[in-house]
Every structure is written in C-alpha cells, then in structure tokens.
Amino acid sequence: MDRDVSDTATATHARGAPYPRPAMRRFRVYALDPRAALTPETATINNAIISLPWEASYEEPLTLGPTGEYLEVVDFDAPANRFYAPLDPNHPDLLAQDGLPPSEGRPQFHQQMAYAVAMKTIRGFERALGRKVLWSSHFADQNEQFIQRLRIYPHALAEANAYYSPEKTALLFGYFRDMAAPGKGSGGWVFTCLSHDIIAHETAHAILHGMHRRSIEEIGPDTFAFHEAFADLVALLQHFTMTEMVAHQISATSGRLQMDRLLSGLAGQFGEATRGGHALRTGIDREIDPATQKLQDPDPTLYQTVLEPHARGAILVGAVFDAFLTIFERRTADLMRIATGRSAPTGEELSRDLVNRLASEAAKAAEHVLRMCVRGLDYLPVTDVTFGEYLRAILTADRDLVPEDPRCYRIILTDAFRRRGIYQQGWLSMAPDSLYWEAPEAALDPTLFADLVQQLDLQPVFRRAEIYQQSRNNQAQIHRWLMSPDDEHPAKIALWEELLGIKLAAGGLASIAESQTYKGRPAVEIHSARIARRSGPDGQEARELIIEVTQRRYAFDDPEKQARADKDAKFARKNRDFIFRGGATLVIDLTDNSVRYAVRKRIDDDQRLDRQRRWLSGEQSAGLYATYFSTQAMAEPFAFAHRQ
Amino acid sequence: MNAPIRVRMYQGLLGDCFLITIGDPAASRDQRVHILIDCGVLQQVPGEAKRMRGVAENLFATTEGRLDLVVITHEHWDHISGFKHARDLLIDKMQIDTLWLAWTERRGDGQADPLRKKSERAKKTVSRAAGRAAAAGVDVTSSIERFNGPLALGGGLSSTDIIPELIARAEKTGTVKYLEPGEIHVTPGEHGLRAYVLGPSRNPDYLTRSQPPGVGKQTYLTVDFAAALDERYAAAESLEEALDPDGPSPFANLHAIPASAVEEGADGAAARWLWSRYRAPGNDWRNIDHAWLSAAGSLALKLDNDTNNTSLVLAFEVAPGGDVLLFAADAQVGNWMSWHLQNYPAPEAGSTVSATELLGRTVLYKVGHHASHNATLDKLGLALMTHPGLVAMIPVVESEARRTKNGKAVHRGWDMPYPDLLARLMTRTEGRILRGDAEPGKDPTGKTICSDAGFLQRVRSEALFVELTI
Predict the structure, then answer these.
(1) pLDDT computed for residue B407 by the predictor
(2) Can you give the CATH number for the domain in which B310 is found?
(3) So what's the pLDDT on residue A319?
(4) Which ranges of chain B have pLDDT less than 50?
(5) Could you check whether the bond before residue B200 is cis, i.e. omega within 30 degrees of 0?
(6) Are residues A124 and A186 in the same domain?
(7) Which of A211, A246, A267 is a domain's end point?
(8) Contact B219 A64 (CB under 8 A)
(9) Does A228 touch chain B if contact means CB atoms closer than 8 Å?
C-alpha cells in the first residue's frame, strides 16, 4: 500500500472538467471455487468478474478491508493468531485490473472474493425486495443498536465449516487441509471463503435474520430447514447469473440443464474434501431414469420423515429448483423449435447463438424465480414458518404484483411442492387460487389504518441508518397507536385481537408476558415496520407497509403446568420452560391504506403450542446437537447446524 | 442339569456394573462362577466415589476376591471407572482368571492399532483445544467435560489407562482374550455358557454409524461412513495443526502480521487499521479469538459416539439352543446393524444361528446405553425380541441423568431413559423392567408397573443391587 487512490487526486487541476465516475466496480472472483480452476473442462470458465454499482452519494465509500456500506472484511486468522493486511480496493493497480487476479495463496484475494460475492448477493436481494438490506440489530444492555455492517472473517476457523453468527453479526469462514480421503485428498488447503456458494449461503442467512429476527429460533421441523433451504436456493440460483459458465454447461449438456451437475451442485470443492467426491448438496433431488433420460418423480414421503435441517431443506430446494427447470424449459421451447424444429433438446449439439440465447434465458428464469422467493419473505408469518406457508407467501406476493399468471409460474411452483408432499392440513386444494392468503374478515372498519398511516413517517430516505431510525420510530408510533385505541369497547378490542391473533385486553391468558409500560396488560412487540416498493415486469407498482406484531407467552413442558400458568401470571413467569410466540404479519396497501392480509399465528393456539412442545421435547428432533449442546446451540445455531 | 444363574445389576450408578453368578451362591467358591461385566459410574454423579467403593467391596466379598471372567465392553468412564475408584480391590487384589475384550483393544492388531492411535491422538487434540479455551476463560467445554468422554481427567488413572492396567493384571493372574464378531466362546466353569460375539464389527461402515439410518439418504448423496471416520480424524488433525504454533500455514509469512504487532499506534497503516477494527475498545462482542476452539465440542461428541459403537456385545446362551441373555453395552446403530451381517456357527454340526434367532430367544435384555434414543434398534432389534418372558434391565438413574443445576442440565444430552423407548420396552416386557433407580416391579416414583408374580418371585433386591434368577 504505497499509494492510495486519493494521492492521484492531486492532479485534479490539470484535467479540466471532472472525469465521469465509473458506473461499476469490478472484482475478479472464482466463478465457483478454486477446484473448478484445476479441472480442464471448467478452468476456462471459472474466472468471473462481479460488477457492483459504484457507491451512491448516500452510501459509505468503499475503503480498506474492503469496508463499504454493508460489509467490513476483517482478516484475523484466529487459529494462527495473526492478521492479514486489508485489501485496498482503491489502489490504482487494482482499479486498473478489476482487483487482484484469483490466487489461493494471497489472503487479500480471499478478502476480495468474499466481499464481492456477499455484495452481489445483497444487491440481488435488494432488487427483489424493493428496499435496502438491514442487518439484525445488536442488543447491548437492553439497548437495540443499529449495525451498519456485517463483518466478514475470511479465516476464522480451522475446520471444514463456515457459519453466520447472529451474536456477532458476522460471517465466520473456516479453512482446512484436504486430508479426508486418501488418494482423493490433495493435502492442499480448502478455503470456505473462496467458495461462491458458501459465501452466498452464509450471506443469505444473515439477510434473512435481518428481516426476521425470530427466524433463527428452532421451534419446529421446518424453521431451521427453511433457513437452510433459503440460503441454498440463493446460492444455487446465483449460479445462473454467470452466463459464460451457464453457456458452457448448456453447450456441454446440449441444452438439457437437468442433466448438469456443475450448476445444480453446491460447494463442489468443499464437498469433494469432506463428502468423498460429491457436491455438498444438489438442487436436483430426482434421479435420471436411464431408459427414458427423464427425471424420475421425487419421493413424496420425505417431507414426512426427514428432519435433519439441511436434508429437510433439500426438499424445499428441490421443489423450487424443479420449478426453475420447468420454467426454463417452457421459456425456451419456442427458441428450440425455431432453431432445431423440436420443442425439447435431443442431445444433438446446439449452435453457439442458440447456446448463448439459452444461457440468457436461464439467467432470466433464475432471476425471476429468485425474485419470487425473496418477495415471499415479506408475507411470511411472524414465527414458526412452515414450507407450506412459504409457498402461500410466495404465491400471494407474486399475485399482488403480477395479477395474471400468463406463463403459469405459480402453477408450476405449486405443482413442484405438491409432488414433494409439501402440503398442510386444512388446505382446500393445491390450486394457487385457494392458497393465496385471504384478506382479513371485514368486521373492522377498513379505513382504520388510514388514521395510523397518517401518523407514520413514510418519506423515502436512502441512508440505511436513517431507514433503520425511521423504521424504529414508526414501530414505536404503531405500538402507541395500538396500545391506546380510541375505542375501548370490549367488542372492538375482541375484533382487534381476532385480526392480530394476540391478546390486547387484561384478563386474557395469564401466561402472556406483561407489558412494562402498560401495566396489567399483555405486552405487544412491533417487530418491524417496513416499507416496500416493488415493480412488476410490466411496470406494475406496489407500495406496501409491512408490520409484524408479536407476543410472548410463557410455556411449559407439562400441559398441566400450562393450564395453571394460563391462570397464574406469577407462576408462569417464574417457572416457564420455554417461550411460545404468536402474532401477525400485516400487509397494508399504501395506495388505499387498507389491510390486505393479516397472516396470523395465534397466541392462544394450544394445538400449535402442543406441536412446539413435542418438537422441543425431542420427540421428533433427530439432531444430536439439539440435545447435546442446547445452550451453545442457542447462541450459535449455525455453527452447530453446519458441524453436524 | 443346568446350574442356577443369577444376574445382578448394581443400582444407583448411572453406569454399568453387572455380576452373573452361575451355581448356588451359597455353595463354596469353587462350586460357583462369577462373571463381571463392566464396572463404572458416570462422572459428576454426587458421591460417585463412595458409592462405587461400596459396590467394589460388595463385589469383592461376593466373589471372595476372584473373578472367573471379566468382560469390559468399551473404555467409557461409566463402564470402567470402578476400577479407578477401587483400584486396590478390583485390580491390585482381585484375581482375574480371564479377561474378555473386543478386538478393538488388542495391541498389535492391524486394524485396531491405527484406530486406537488415531482416536487417542484426536482425543488429546480435543482435550488441548478445550484446555486452551478454558485458559482463555471461554467455556467451550462446559457441555463436554461432563460427558463420558475423551477429555482426560486430572490425576490418577485416567480412562485410557484403565484398560492397559486391567490387561496387565489379568495377564499376571490369568489369561486375556480378544473377541471377534461372529465367534462363539464359552464362559469358564463346569456349566459354561456359550457367548455369541455380536459386535463390534470389523466392517468400518458399521463402526461409525451412530444415527438412525435413512435420514436424508435420498436427498444427500450417500455418505460413506468409513470416510466419515477418516473425516473425523482429519478434522482432529486440522485442529492439532492449528494448535501447533509451528504447524503448517496456507500463506507465506510475508502476508502475515503477528497478532502482537496489532496494537494502538503500531507501525504501519495496516496494523493500525486492523487495531482500530478489531482490538479497539467496543469491538469485543464481535471478536472471534476463541470461536475456532469450539470445534472441539462437536468433535468430542463424535469421537464419543465412535467409542460407543465399538462396544463388545455378547449374547449368552443359558443352554444350547435355549434362552439368551443379551448384553448390548452402549452399542449404537451401526453396531446393531452389523450383528445381522454374519451367521454364528453353532457347535451342533452343520447348523448356524442368526442374530434374528438369538434376539428371538432373548429373555433378558441389558438395555443399550442406559436406554438412550439411539442405542436400541427397532426393526432389527427390539421388534425381534419376541420371547413372552422378556425382561429388561436398565442401568439408569433418571433423576441424575436429568438433574439440572441453575436451570441447566448437568449431564447434558442424557435424555435417559428415552420416553419412546421406555414405552416400547414397557409393552414388550409387560412391565418386567428392572431399573437402576427403582424397586422391582415399580417405577422411580414408586408406582407399580408390573404385577407378574412369577417374575417378581425371581427378583431379589438389596441396598446396592437388584438380582434376577434366570
């Protein structure tokens, strides 16, 4: 670091009018991981460039680390007890050659790749979400603190593991020597921070946790599995944004993406070192029938029997990835007909132009599916998410933005879930129409929320710290508004309780935690108040306010104790075994201030409580770590999930 | 004419200690045979030493200082710590005519030696990592210290030393045998029982499987279990290298800035920057100095399960082709599955016996691993134990296994007996369950669970033990 980019600014007077600012920052990365650079078939396509928008005026400038608006890379190698100097992304030598060239032996390249891939993941999310990504707050001495940046430690662990630490708001990456399988292992080093998939996966965990603070509580078979599946999906679908590699694989498989194992596999090098030569996980959960060359049907019983979070998550990943493949095939059927006279590829070599067109269609399809998946996150219930509810959230969010479904994406997705046995009791049918969230009962005055929206600060702000503060202020405002209604009439309160799935009046369930401010009444938390602006493919615009209202109830392993606690607040508070949550996600349409949906999980739902009780008691849990390391696993849930 | 057989389970231990007596207990010493199967109590059980001492004294008196046969199933503390707590009585003074161990304990065995060596080395590494974390004030071992496990104990005979000491003693006063799966041995004495050796398997795939099968098999590419063991030791090696200041490093030194050079006002912009981001006040909560050491926890647990899976499992036949006493030690899934891989050459000419048949003839099942969730197989195990008179012995102290201190479990993960399994055992045995923490025919709360008068007549209990006549 002999010179800093600012040094060159001394020449400003000599250049007349200011130079235009570059639109993009470009960073070289491995498209997949270093292993793919060693294999002749993939070496030519394994160097990729990630282009990130240059920092906007309201964003923090990118400096040493790299440290930017969202991320800070701090390279402390804890096992070796030493540091590595931070990358200077503004150095002219690096600006002129798109950052450091790929190199396993230079820690600064590791910093660069971890930064670039994580940033790319963040930007992808923001496009789909229609708002800025915020990290989960830090709690110190009862105070909630805004965390500007997620920290990345590229060399934190000496093991085959990487995880998101909710406690530290940090990603910890491990490195290890590939010694596992004699003959196969090279004895070389494997760095998890050089795996595109692992970086994207962990970043997705952090983003999801930032959106849903309670999503890291393992309270049912689907909660952790959902977290894992979602992170895998983000990593997997990102493969298809690297069109050069996609084109290569399409060419290699003559357009049959379902036969490809490179793009559908996750963490190839890591898997090879730790799993005896296979990708760590794969998006395709179906075998190819050797006779017909078609994919066989998935096993619909797995959802009932598989509980380990990654394996269970793979069912959801399989469903979404399957939908992606179907969408890709349908989108490209016309191209195939024009070029080859057939709707589906036959295995014959494809022309270069067709390959490139197919690759760009794959990128579009992947982007579309990823957007659908990300948008669905805003429509999730506040706690205890199941795969089926996620499907409903995706479908509803998509319908709101794209009312018609001319390409049948929603039907394709629903079908992929159905064939994997992901459905829930009480569903009318597996038609998308009957799976959309329903508008709330009309008993409450629809204009009620107009009054609330008036009191909120809905001005667009751009700095993330200000967005955070605005959201906090709005949360407080909503809380006040909710706790001090104009109309204290019991019938009215009951309607509110019905809408939100929680208790508002005193004298309900004594096991619900009591408010500190409004003594004697049940405590209510406003978890978030987010403003989302989204635009659909045909320019449709949606502006929504999403409010999460939650409540805590002290819960007991023993149903008899529960019955007592439901009447005796002191007993409940002192002796509780676990926390049971309820509440609602409210989606308010800001164009007319009406409540579109109230996605509820009732606090007084004793059946759900019983399910959670049975899950926590280990009756269903198969994870060793869930029982052996209960306390540690609470603090670092992903550290243990990934060590399994 | 068969001699009477009694199986005594020492109680209140949360550990295994069984004494089989063949012959009339009142007869003179040379008219009866005593077989000891394991002798241990878990760490951190209050008064463990005193309780164990009492057991050892009782053992010594009952056997008059001579054991015809000692069977050690595996090296875990809760199976062998008695030999430490009462070393004078059980090792120094005890005459051991025969000692049976699994092939995994044989020194000089081509398969056992590397396994044992690697495992001991891995355990040392885990223990070092734990120690280093503890020195830094980080409690990464809080959950594993109390575990059976690999962590060495301060002073005295540590768990890894006990077995060599026993071997030395037995070689001096008698003979040592290492048992192979599929073999049949006969216990000492005139009325020797046939002992079928069911496990541990020599097939590496079955040595390491501790989880119920079928989980995630369809969606994850099949995991090779032998590779899983290699991976375990590779992980330990990684950790070992990292613990070694001179160990290999992936980066050339020119890239490194020693931690000691990163301080306030250090020379060099990079070191100052790093200090401001990492060491400067207010950063503590995000620091990762010790996060890597907690890898020791999960590794310790896996190594522990591996050891359980190397348990020596014996099926004693009361009479040729007759009732079977099944001692499953702490065998986990892989071990159970391997029993069915081989047939057992019955001494009757030309016939073989299958594991299924042995399970079908089982009248006494020593429940695996204190009735934990993963140490009794269902379809290939309990479901095959169809004898109408089946009795189960569970060496468990539930109140101790589930004891909490300041709201935290003392023996974390000791969810024993596992409720589902207990319920199935209750059905299978019609309540004929003898536990380490209950009177015969009752559960620990004193509730009657069995009214089979014929069974209760065969049971006798004293302060230290409960005893069943077969």
Answers:
(1) 55
(2) 3.60.15
(3) 92
(4) 1, 141-158, 211-226
(5) yes
(6) yes
(7) A211
(8) no
(9) no
- Domain for residue B296, yes or no? no
Residues 6 or more apart in contact with residue A556 via CB below 8 angstroms: A562, A565, A575, A576, A577, A578, A613
Please give the structure tokens belonging to residue A51: 């282009």
B268 in a domain, yes or no? no
Q: Assess whether A407 and A271 both reside in one domain.
A: yes
The answer to whether the CB atoms of A276 and B409 lie below 8 A apart is no
Domain count along chain A: 4
Decide if A55 contacts A69 (C-beta within 8 A): yes
The tokens for B250 are 């992936």
For residue A216, is it within any domain? no
Interchain CB contact of A341 with B (< 8 Å) = no
Q: What angle do CA A584, A589, A590 make, to 5 degrees?
A: 125
Q: Are residues A186 and A228 in the same domain?
A: no
| Strand pairing class (A578-589; A594-601) | antiparallel
d(CA B416, CA B394): 10
Q: Are residues A612 and A594 in the same domain?
A: no
pLDDT at A14: 63
Domain shared by A596 and A624, yes or no:
no
Predicted complex ipTM: 0.84
CB contact residues (below 8 A), chain A span 300-339, against chain B: 302, 305-308, 310-312, 314-315, 318
Cα–Cα distance, A107 to B255 (Å, whole number):
7
B44 CB contacts (<8 Å, ≥6 apart)?
B146, B410, B411
In a domain, residue B132? The reply is no
pLDDT score for B352: 87
What end-to-end distance do the CA atoms of chain A give, in Å?
41
* pLDDT given for residue B36 in this prediction: 97
- Is residue A187 within 8 angstroms of chain B, CB to CB? no
Same domain? For A132 and A176 the reply is: yes
Structure confidence by residue, pLDDT tens digits, B172-211? 999 999 999 999 999 999 999 999 999 898 887 776 555 4
Question: Residues near A321 by Cβ (< 8 Å), separated by ≥ 6?
Answer: A233, A236, A264, A283, A284, A285
- Asked if residue A443 is part of any domain, the answer here is no
Nearest alpha-carbon partner for A78 in A159, A157, A160, A193: A157
Among partner residues A1, A282, A312, which is closest to B269 by beta-carbon distance?
A1
In a domain, residue B440? The reply is: yes
Whether A557 is covered by a domain: the verdict is yes
Task: Concatenate the DSSP letters of all residues of A511-573 into one string.
Answer: TBPBPSSSTTSB--EEEEEEEEEEE-TTS-EEEEEEEEEEEEEEE-SSHHHHHHHTT-HHHHH
Q: What is the pLDDT of residue B208?
A: 59
CA pair distance B272, B61, nearest whole angstrom: 72
Domain containing A533 equals 448-604
Q: Which domain holds residue B363?
A: 5-114+146-215+302-469
- Same-domain check for residues A495 and A419: no
Question: Which residue from A254, A188, A245 is spatially nearest to A36, judged by alpha carbons?
Answer: A245
Distance from CA of A19 to the nearest CA of B (A): 29
In a domain, A466, yes or no: yes
Of A82, A174, A314, the CB nearest to B256: A82
Give contacts of A165 with chain B, Cβ < 8 Å. 291
Last residue of a domain, one of A211, A240, A260: A211
**For the CA atoms of chain B, what is the radius of gyration?**
25
Alpha-carbon distance of B136 to A392, in angstroms, equals 49
d(CA A198, CA A269): 11
Please give the average pLDDT of every successive group of 10 residues along chain A, which has 644 residues. Answer: 47 71 93 79 83 93 95 94 94 95 94 97 90 90 89 92 90 82 61 92 93 80 87 90 87 79 72 60 71 75 77 88 91 88 80 91 92 92 91 92 88 92 77 84 71 88 93 92 73 83 85 86 89 77 88 89 90 88 91 87 90 70 35 46 44
Per the structure, how many domains does chain B have?
1
Same-domain status, A360 and A463? no
Contact B450, B424 (CB under 8 A): no
